[in-house]
């Protein structure tokens, strides 16, 4: 077994870091889409989204233990325990609202509105870190939030609770992403994923307690899949952020909209309207614009090479 792992590891390291980041990001987006589809499937069978969130974290922790045990839990060493805790408390709000939204919202709409997270990240960076909002960023914010309005269509159709919850969850997720980006500088992808479920398992367990019902064997199997999908998605996303520049891989997040439309149609017969794709494209372009401008700003500040 060790020989197989070493062979796989050597082949993996032989691939250029940028290409590794692209592959990991594509896999992460796909597994996130699979998790969202499975969440909606279990919710339609009568299990409350808060309980689904708890099992996602509980099984995620179970799947991570063997990974961490291989290195005798050395990956859990961190110089930023406070930041891990802050991220955990921030992300519980994102997770509970998002899981509830996924249970009642078409998958393509969920994916499209989730693209607003980087835009809220720009606002958060301006407020918390006093980063300057230049012309490009302001235009991107305007285009992105206009895209969200195209999808939600306030004043034309009734505003759905799911759409409100998704946008609200992206505010929390944007704050969590800032924490993740800082943590990737010092901590492993396994550690970042592990501390997330270490904090979120008891926090979501408290929420699940008030709506608890024992899952059936079929639901239990689907909950196990959600935990596996979620753990794989987070580990590969965190590792992709370490392997490649964010501006190079975040544009691949657009495939989430494609997978959401495909899985929504195949599993639930959901046919997203043209406004979902139009608004999702606007939000995605704006988010990519932000990532590109941030990358250019970092290069401008970097010292010249000798």
Largest sheet composition: none
Average of pLDDT: 82
Describe the global form. Answer: globular
Q: How much β-strand is present in the residues? A: under 5%
- SSE order, one letter for each helix or strand: HHHHHHHHHHHHH
Residue stretches low in confidence (pLDDT < 50, at least 5 long) are 3-8
Structural class: mainly alpha
The DSSP helix count reads 13
**Cα-based radius of gyration, to the nearest Å:** 19 Å
- How many domains make up the 3D coordinates? 1
> End-to-end distance, in Å?
45 Å
How many E-type strands?
0
The percentage helix is: over 70%
Structure described in brief:
This protein has helices at residues 2-14, 17-44, 49-69, 81-104, 107-114, 117-128, 135-152, 161-183, 189-209, 217-243, 246-249, 255-268, 274-301.
Question: Main traits of this protein?
Answer:
306 residues; mainly alpha; 13 helices; 79% helix; 0% strand; globular; disordered N terminus
Provide structural commentary.
This protein is mainly alpha-helical and 306 residues long. It has one domain (18-299). It is built from 13 helices and no strands. The chain has helices at 2-14, 17-44, 49-69, 81-104, 107-114, 117-128, 135-152, 161-183, 189-209, 217-243, 246-249, 255-268, 274-301. Helix 7 (135-152) runs antiparallel to helix 13. The chain is globular, with a radius of gyration of 19 Å. The chain starts with a helix and ends in a 5-residue tail after the last helix. The model is unreliable at 3-8 (pLDDT under 50).
């Amino acid at each position: 077994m060790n020989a197989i792992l070493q062979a796989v590891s050597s082949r993996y390291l032989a691939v250029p870091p940028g290409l590794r980041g692209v592959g990991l990001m594509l896999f992460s987006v796909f597994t996130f889409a699979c998790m969202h589809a499975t969440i909606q499937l279990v919710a339609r069978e009568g299990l409350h989204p808060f309980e689904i969130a708890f099992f996602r974290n509980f099984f995620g922790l179970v799947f991570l233990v063997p990974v961490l045990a291989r290195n005798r839990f050395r990956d859990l060493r961190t110089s930023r325990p406070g930041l891990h805790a802050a991220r955990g408390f921030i992300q519980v709000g994102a997770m509970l609202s998002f899981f509830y939204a996924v249970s009642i919202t078409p998958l393509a709409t969920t994916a499209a509105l989730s693209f607003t997270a980087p835009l809220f990240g720009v606002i958060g960076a301006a407020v918390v870190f006093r980063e300057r909002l230049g012309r490009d960023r302001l235009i991107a914010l305007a285009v992105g939030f206009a895209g969200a309005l195209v999808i939600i269509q306030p004043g034309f159709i009734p505003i759905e609770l799911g759409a409100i919850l998704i946008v609200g969850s992206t505010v929390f997720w944007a704050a969590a992403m800032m924490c993740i980006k800082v943590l990737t500088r010092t901590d492993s992808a396994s550690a970042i994923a592990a501390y997330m479920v270490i904090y979120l398992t008891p926090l979501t367990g408290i929420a699940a307690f008030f709506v608890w019902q024992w899952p059936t064997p079929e639901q239990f199997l689907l909950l196990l899949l959600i935990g596996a999908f979620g753990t794989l998605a987070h580990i590969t996303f965190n590792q992709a952020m370490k392997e490649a520049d964010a501006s190079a891989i975040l544009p691949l997040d657009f495939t989430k909209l494609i997978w959401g439309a495909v899985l929504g149609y195949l599993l639930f017969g959901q046919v997203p309207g043209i406004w979902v794709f139009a608004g999702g494209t606007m939000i995605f372009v704006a988010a990519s614009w932000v990532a590109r401008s941030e990358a250019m700003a970092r290069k401008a500040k970097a010292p010249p090479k000798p």
